[in-house]
């Protein structure tokens, strides 16, 4: 009986094998990697100072820039009343006789590369996160006539690629 079952299974296998067809084809596979960039920034805080503080005041913001490998990019900045590379901290609306306090932005601690609405930091994407520090500088003696209170500004950062 076992021999009969084995013979029957072999016959089915031969019939099954004989009825199978063979065919093949190929396909074309593509991928396009698009240029892309992302930018994030921490807030910049010049902290607390008195009007007697006559030294230069600095603060910084940490930026993360991630661009597709090989993608050239440029970082620029502006705010509502930024002019000629000078930004302004504005006094709170409840402060009387208070004036704006000027500051500038730089991409380096030595203040050789200023960030403005037209001039900025330029580099090329690596495909991974590139960390960059943005430096804010208030010139010496800028607070000597400042009214006590809170000052702020909103800066728009642009990453062009």
Folded structure, characterized:
The structure is a single chain. By secondary structure, this protein is mainly beta. The chain has a single domain (37-160), classed as Fimbrial-type adhesion domain (Immunoglobulin-like). 11% of the residues lie in helices and 35% in strands. The strands form two sheets. Strands 1, 2, 4, 5, 6, 8 and 9 form a seven-stranded antiparallel sheet that branches. A hairpin with a 7-residue loop joins strand 5 and strand 6. The radius of gyration is 33 Å and the shape is elongated. InterPro entries: Spore_coat_component, Spore_coat_U/FanG. This is Spore coat protein U-like protein. Residues 25-156 form the Spore coat protein U/FanG domain. Residues 1-21 form the signal peptide.
CATH superfamily: Fimbrial-type adhesion domain
Give the helix/strand class: mainly beta
The global form is elongated
How large is the share of residues in beta strands?
A: 35-45%
- Rg over CA atoms, rounded to whole Å, is 33 Å
* Total discrete domains: 1
Unreliable segments (pLDDT under 50, ≥5 consecutive)? none
């Amino acid at each position: 009986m076992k021999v009969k079952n084995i013979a029957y299974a072999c016959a089915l296998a031969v019939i099954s094998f004989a009825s199978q067809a063979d065919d093949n084809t190929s396909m074309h596979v593509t991928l396009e990697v698009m240029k892309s960039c992302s930018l994030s920034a921490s807030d910049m805080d010049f902290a607390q100072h008195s009007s007697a503080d006559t030294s230069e005041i600095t603060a910084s913001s940490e930026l993360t820039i991630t661009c597709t490998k090989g993608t050239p990019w440029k970082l620029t900045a502006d705010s509502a009343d930024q002019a000629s590379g000078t930004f302004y901290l504005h006094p709170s609306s409840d402060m009387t006789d208070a004036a704006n306090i000027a500051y500038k932005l730089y991409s380096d601690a030595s203040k050789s590369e200023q960030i403005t609405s037209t001039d900025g930091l330029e580099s090329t994407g690596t495909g991974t996160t590139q960390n960059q520090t943005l430096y804010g500088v208030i010139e010496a003696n800028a607070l000597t006539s400042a009214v006590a209170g809170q000052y702020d500004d909103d800066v728009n950062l642009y990453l062009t690629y």
